[in-house]
Amino acid sequence: MASPKIYTRLAGPRGRLASYHSLYLGPDHLLSVISQGFEERYRRFPLADIQAMGATRTQGGTVGLAADGLIALLFALAAFETDGGLSIFLWVMAAPFALAIPILLWLGPTCTFYVQTSVQRTRLPAVKRFRKALAVMERVGGLVEAGQGRLNTASMPLEALEALGPREAITSRAESRQDQDPVRSGKGGWHLALFYTLLADAVVAAASFTLPQVLWNYLETILFLVLAGLMVTALVKQTKSGLSRDVRVITGVTGVYLVSLFFLSQILAFVLQVSQPGQIMGQAKIAVYLAPLSPQEMGAFFWLYLFEMTGSLLLGGMGLIRTVRSRAAARA
Amino acid sequence: MRPVCPKCKAELGPFSLNTAVPVPCPKCQTPQTTLVFPSLFREKPVNPGAALMDGESGCFFHPGKQAAAVCSRCGRFLCSLCEIEIQEGVVCPSCLAGKAKSEGEAEFTQSRTLYDNMAMGMAVFPMLAIWPTLVSAPLTWVVALKYWKSPISLVRRSRWRFPVALVISGLQMAGWAAFFFLV
């Protein structure tokens, strides 16, 4: 029933949006496997043709760990605030996120891994963690060197490296255009819109907090949807952009902030609905319920408003200043 | 093609290559490790094949070109343009095409349809809505039995999904038979 074993798994499978990626070692080549639906596609990299392998650390792991920790913390805080069956439910929800923290710490930082041959430079998403990438490079590098010979740093022909000249093989036309204009794919327009909207959100949250009008609550909900859209667009646009590191970090932190704000408000809304069964159902009724309350009557929502006002104000202000500076520097 | 930092695309100098520990990229300062191998500096020979002289053997596909190798499968003479090196030796383009067509040749397979996964999916997912199993259970048997011997994934070796899908869909059909018989 079983066929002879040809390939040894090196890394993966790693899930992406609609596919799974794995990396295998064959008798004389690397095999990248892309599983999509009921089909598998294969790409081969002969060991004799591999010119280089590289891995660069990315921030995805840190952001993921922070988001995971934050979600665990929010569930735990909500569980502390409640009692009975709801508290148990919230603890059960917090447990998987809490358990994931040591696992994520053990897995270590994430990375981008690529293999270069004479005709292509290909990113291999199957290798996600930096530690794994180093292990793969050590194992495959040994096999490549066994066939090609060893290239020591001391004996590396510097002139030959210079003679290779500027990189000639560009994998896509988009990348080629980006070389000519480093800020082409991210001029910062979407970032400006995001940070302006964050400032507007801070103002609306303050208005909603102090003025007993349900209109502010509705406006806040609409603004949050706009913020979510702008956030995703800004994150997509800043990939491979020439925007400064500060802007990109602030955008990432804003993403974590918005996710935590969403989860926190959902948890509080859930607790509110459970505490008053049959009376408050849905977003609109919650807005109507909260609108006439004074800060003293709001309970946990008081802290949520405070978090939203300060978070939006700080991130919006900092992001706006940094983006304007980055755009000015790019123009100069 | 010179090695570059995957993040900022900055060209990497010799001091950033083949290092024992990760070193920061000279431009974006992100820790990175890059290994380069001798083939990076190997010049690719461009030899379109020498012209045929009197008394010499010519290429089967290019009669005007001098033969440089012999196909290990069919024995045809080949010029340097037509010789293709694979694991088992030098082959000609037509033998390579024939080899690639035969399903058993893992070396040339570009993609495969995973019928075992398909059968398993057809057996399991319709159970979420119960009623679709009335149609999907017999279809699962058709797929599993028709493609029982078809090649599966290159990297997985076992076909356990086929019998499991058959058992699950068999139970579904038995359940429906019992339902119609009793009701």
Summed up, what is this model?
The complex is a heterodimer of chains A (332) and B (183). Chain A has 332 residues and is α+β, with helices and mostly antiparallel strands. In chain A, 59% of the residues lie in helices and 14% in strands.
The general outline of chain B is flat
Proportion of residues in β-strands of chain A:
5-15%
Low-confidence stretches of chain A: 166-185
Distance between the termini of chain A: 67 Å
In terms of DSSP E residues, the strand content of chain B is: 5-15%
Largest interface: A-B, 65 and 49 residues
Mean pLDDT of chain B: 82
Intertermini distance of chain B:
72 Å
Largest sheet data of chain B:
2 strands, antiparallel
Describe the structure.
The complex is a heterodimer of chains A (332) and B (183). In chain A, 59% of the residues lie in helices and 14% in strands. Chain A is an alpha+beta fold and 332 residues long. Chain A has two domains: 8-58 and 111-180, PH-domain like (Roll); 182-331. In chain A, a hairpin with a 4-residue loop joins strand 6 (110-116) and strand 7 (121-123). The interface between A and B is large, with 65 and 49 residues.
